[in-house]
């Protein structure tokens, strides 16, 4: 008759999980710097995309405050135009799906 090991015996005979070596303070600092640079680069790329999409921002110096201000105004203008078009379509008896209404 075969004897089975108890779960505590199995845990004791299993090899311990490999521990990852701890980072030195210098390595932690370098990782932090690299992460911060990556974050800043992603923000810069986002602002660059906005300057390509928002009319009037092409070729401007990139003041992030100006980019955000003009982007908000552009979005408001687009929403107002959308609302105007919905109202016009409905005034002529057209049916506009709810997802297109503001």
From TrEMBL:
One of its GO terms (cellular component) is nucleus. It is found in: Nucleus. Residues 7-40 have a biased composition (Basic and acidic residues). GO terms for molecular function: DNA-binding transcription factor activity, RNA polymerase II-specific; protein dimerization activity; RNA polymerase II cis-regulatory region sequence-specific DNA binding. Residues 27-78 form the BHLH domain. SUPFAM superfamilies: HLH, helix-loop-helix DNA-binding domain. InterPro entries: bHLH_dom (IPR011598), HLH_DNA-bd_sf (IPR036638), Max-like/E-box_TFs (IPR052207). Keywords: DNA-binding, Nucleus, Transcription, Transcription regulation. Residues 1-40 are annotated as: Disordered. This is BHLH domain-containing protein.
């Amino acid at each position: 008759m075969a004897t089975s090991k108890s779960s505590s015996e199995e845990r004791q005979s299993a090899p311990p999980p490999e521990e990852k070596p701890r980072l030195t303070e210098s390595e932690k600092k370098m990782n932090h710097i690299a992460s911060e640079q990556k974050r800043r680069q992603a923000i810069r790329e986002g602002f660059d995309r906005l300057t390509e999409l928002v009319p009037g921002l092409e070729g401007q110096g990139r003041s992030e405050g100006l980019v955000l201000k003009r982007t908000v105004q552009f979005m408001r203008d687009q929403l107002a135009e959308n609302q105007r078009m919905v109202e016009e379509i409905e005034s002529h008896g057209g049916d506009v799906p709810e997802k297109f209404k503001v």
